[in-house]
Specification:
The protein is an alpha+beta fold. It has 2 domains: 50 residues, Uridine Diphospho-n-acetylenolpyruvylglucosamine Reductase, domain 2; 208 residues, Uridine Diphospho-n-acetylenolpyruvylglucosamine Reductase, domain 3 (2-Layer Sandwich). The chain contains 12 helices and 14 strands. A hairpin with a 6-residue loop joins strand 11 and strand 12. The longest helix has 20 residues. The radius of gyration is 18 Å and the shape is globular. The structure holds flavin-adenine dinucleotide (FAD). Flavin-adenine dinucleotide (FAD) binds next to strand 2 and helix 7.
Length: 266
């Protein structure tokens, strides 16, 4: 690990001011990705701005037809939340499927989506539910937030404050997990909004989370596991590695979509 300066601001204004003046400074949330990258000398921030002391960034609250989750809220707290479990059970199950107990006790919603790992679970939930990411500067629709491999619309020094998830009519998530890390070889989040519109988000397939127009069309016509499983996707654009070929990943999308719809239908 390279040397760095440590800061622990007491509120968001202090944190953004610090990040504004520290050129190579980085926010620290659960540290599950950032600290590992620093230990491996893959990241060399001059300063770490620890968000852990900022109470306003944590918590889960109902806001009309949405649930608002603070950026610093741990995966374990989302998984255990009665409010999330009652109104968006698919999101609680998604959070409970991340990594292991230790990762869920430390990792945060904001850290996960700011990092935008191409096999992470939360990006599928955020995009699938059509959520809104609220930052220290603006509100960003999920469709505009994830912009590529480990890339997001966040600008330097911009911090995620919370994510607002509209409560859907029904939703489901299914992933084929890497047995070691639990990251998604393929994860599919399906959502039928209160309006009836269908959104489908896929993670683990390539350079980042994406929506599947084919699955959305099929499920808008018939929101059934059979309709999802009948969609055959081309392997073009899917990634291949030692874990799975592009063809296998493309096949898994339909299988996981079918399971996600079954979960949504209860
Ligand atoms: C063994 C292991 C297994 C895992 N398995 C899974 C899995 O199955 N599924 C899955 O989805 N994830 C998995 N993860 C990732 C984990 O879920 C964390 O959520 C993720 O690593 C980042 O969250 P964090 O809070 O630890 O962020 P950090 O590591 O602290 O930060 C990550 C990045 O986000 C930035 N950041 C953090 N908070 C904010 C904010 N509020 N605003 C702007 N930028 C911010 C940081 O500056 C940094 O660049 C795993 C991790 C480990 C170590």
């Amino acid at each position: 690990m390279y040397p760095f300066q440590y800061h622990r601001p007491a509120n968001l204004a202090e944190a953004t001011a610090l990040l504004g003046k520290l050129g190579e400074g980085k926010a620290l949330a659960g540290g599950q990705t950032l600290i590992a990258a620093m230990k491996l000398r893959l990241a060399q921030p001059s300063d770490l701005v620890d968000l852990g002391g900022i109470a306003e960034l944590s918590g889960i609250r109902a806001d009309g037809d949405a649930i608002v989750i603070g950026a610093l809220t741990r995966h374990a707290d989302v998984a255990a939340s009665a409010e999330v479990g009652k109104r968006i059970p698919a999101l609680a199950r998604l959070a409970g499927s991340i990594g292991d107990r230790q990762v869920r006790a430390a990792g945060t919603l904001g850290g996960s989506i700011a990092n935008n790992d191409p096999a992470a679970d939360y990006p599928a939930g955020v995009l699938g539910l059509g959520a809104t990411v609220v930052t220290s500067r603006r509100s960003i629709a999920a469709d505009d937030f994830f912009s590529g491999l480990y890339e997001t619309a966040l600008e330097p020094g911009e911090l995620i404050k919370s994510v607002s998830f509209p409560v859907p009519q029904r939703a489901g998530y299914a992933k084929f997990a890497n047995p070691a890390s639990r990251f998604a070889l393929i994860g599919v989040f399906v959502c039928q909004e209160k309006s009836g519109a269908v959104r489908v988000a896929v993670t683990g397939g390539g350079n980042g989370v994406f929506r599947s127009a084919e699955l959305e069309k099929a499920l808008a016509a018939s929101f059934t596991p059979a309709a999802a499983a009948a969609v055959k996707l081309s392997a073009d654009g899917f990634s291949g590695d030692l874990h799975a070929s592009p063809e296998y990943r493309a096949h898994l999308v339909s299988v996981m979509a079918g399971r996600a719809v079954a979960a949504a239908l209860g």
